[in-house]
Amino acid sequence: MDFNNTAAMDYITARLGSEGSPMLAFGGDYNPEQWPEETWEEDVRLMREAGVNLVSVGIFSWSLVEPAEGVYEFGWLDRVLDLLDANGIRVDLANATASPPPWFSHKYPQSLPVTADGVRHSYGSRQAFAASSSDYRRAAAALTEQIASRYKDHPAVVMWHVHNEYGCHNQPDYSDGAAAGFRSWLEDRYGTIEALNDAWGTAFWSQRYTAWEEILPPRTSGTWVNPTQQLDFARYSSDELLECYKAEAAIIRFHSPHPVTTNFMGFNMGLHQPVDYWRWAEQMDVVSNDHYLIAEDTRKFQELAATADLTRGWANGKPWLLMEHSTSAVNWQPRNIAKAPGEMLRNALQHVARGADGALFFQWRASRAGAEKFHSGMLPHAGTDTKVWREVVQLGQALRSLAEVSGSVVTGASGRVDVAIIHDTGARWASELDSHPSVDASNVAETRRWHDAFYRAGIPTDFRQSTDDLSGYRLVVAPMQYLVTDSGAANLDAYVRAGGHLVVTYFSGIVDENDHIRLGSYPGAFSGLLGVQMEEFFPLRAGESVELSRFGDGSFWSELGQPTTAEVLAEAVGGPVTGSPAVTRNAAGDGRAYYVATSLAPEGMAALLALLCEDAGVEPLLQNLPEDVEVARRSKEGTDWTFVINHSSERVQLPISGLELIGGEDLGGALELAAGSVAVVRSPRSPSEAQ
Length: 691
Ligand code: GLA
Description:
Layout: H1 8-13, E1 25-30, H2 38-50, E2 54-57, H3 62-65, H4 75-86, E3 90-94, H5 102-107, H6 134-151, E4 157-161, H7 176-190, H8 193-200, H9 227-255, E5 260-261, E6 263-264, H10 277-281, E7 288-290, H11 300-314, E8 320-324, H12 343-353, E9 356-361, H13 387-401, E10 409-411, E11 419-422, H14 425-431, H15 443-457, E12 461-464, E13 475-478, H16 486-497, E14 501-505, H17 527-530, E15 532-537, E16 545-547, E17 553-555, E18 559-563, E19 567-571, E20 581-588, E21 591-596, E22 599-600, H18 602-616, E23 629-636, E24 639-646, E25 652-654, E26 658-660, E27 665-667, E28 671-673, E29 678-684
Parallel strand pairs: 1-2, 1-9, 2-3, 3-4, 4-5, 6-7, 7-8, 8-9, 11-12, 11-13, 13-14, 14-21
Antiparallel strand pairs: 10-23, 15-18, 16-17, 17-22, 19-20, 20-21, 23-24, 24-29, 25-28, 26-27, 26-29
Helix pairs in contact: 6-9, 7-9, 11-15, 12-13, 15-18
């Protein structure tokens, strides 16, 4: 079936209800192989009690279904799927390729990945394979063929789960196999060694190559390895893994019409983003994502919101699936802090508010053994007389009461999302390379600050790439677009000249796709559009700030320069860049382009946002949103569902009318929301708001 991200989520939700009416997905990873069979009856009884309607099965079962090469044992999986089907629980069936068994790694040691330091991984954890390994690919294809052909008509199965979190533990791989793959990828990209030498700037530090065989992955060297080599290796590594996904998905699609996905990892906050999800998303029938709170993040709910919005970007605005989150603590952070009462419901419904057509967890039953035994589950070690279980049952009820939301899209006050934030993977990857002006200049952190400003203001944001069609947005923000391709720069320029409003921040437009400086004044590609000529970066010391004439102080970064055609909205006051423009506005064509040459604190950002929204005609969903109260909206066929999530410790009152679906109460013009609570209000879309 050719879903192209449009109807695939509907295909799934339509199969989750007993009478064929769509239901939001609710459930999680189910690993019955970790438990004696007697436990399974209790599992399905409790799943029914909680209203579970979708479970992911078999993700880490390779060593059980193929105990020896070419020997398959499906008896237990047959029985599990039959039991789930008999109880009306649908299955997201894995092809089980995420964790090759010990027999495989023992027999094919060359299939194991190698670190930059030349250390070959051992087996004994998971994802112990190199994407370039032909042995791994052959074995994964054979296993996929077995599973897809055996279960293609099983009535419980409604979707396919390829692998698991690609690149989480084995990326990048610097093995000899990767070296060979990298060379052939480079030959395709550059054609000649001369073109590669130009692109990599190998005249620097005597790095000129004379033959393809000389080229290696960016393995550990005395100091910084060529940055373009590193960037190309990140691109290659993503593509190499994507080939694994495509090969397995193609086998499944040959046998079965059900949608195929693999679970993404959001921003992968604070870590390297191992693959380019924009490119990967094109290969998904349904975009699915895993999200875990960073427990000690003081605005973790906003980080969740940003990740959910980014996932919706990958899904091209269509409904997506929350494949994993946690009922409470995880096991992999320094301090694994349990969720407060009510936090799980807020988290799950935040994802739904931002376009997820369901909320699944890792995992159904908390493990007894293994590395994740302290990770929470839907069914905790302590059983059902627990906070977690009661909240799981409560969430199941809430999701049933919200079934009508499925298939709707996220909207803003105008009837569509008016603001886009640009988040190109290449800009992120390149900005994270070595030897830059300041370690504090972080593409992801600056992106999050801008998202947070809109979040606090109650203004929905989409995430887009610089090359996407942006014509539907009133305001576009490009936070630290350090690398911009020629086509991305031209697209943003054309967007402004056609009447758009574009904000560009510091350290943007600096390099081209080969990580070569765009010569002339900063910010390189955008200097003319923004009407500024900046000449020198003045990154700030740790804890230092630059005083501005308006919008508060700036952190991390400042710049020396001058306006050409731009109007200066704020300038630096004092210090080495005194008098340099810090926030500017420039008319270009029918639109306006703004430059922000430092990182603003939340108060200054809010003041700037008010000005930007006024200029661009962007309205919030609700005026004067109380602190730490989140609002989001989904819409379908003339109906709006307004989600209000109270993360604060105060009771709030908001001017919203309609039917509140979780409590079933008709609101007479005001919503009273207790601290920590969630409301979802259905209302007809007023004709003036309709597009
Ligand atoms: C990831 C994996 C799961 C599990 C969880 C734990 O999301 O996909 O298998 O390890 O992390 O948080």
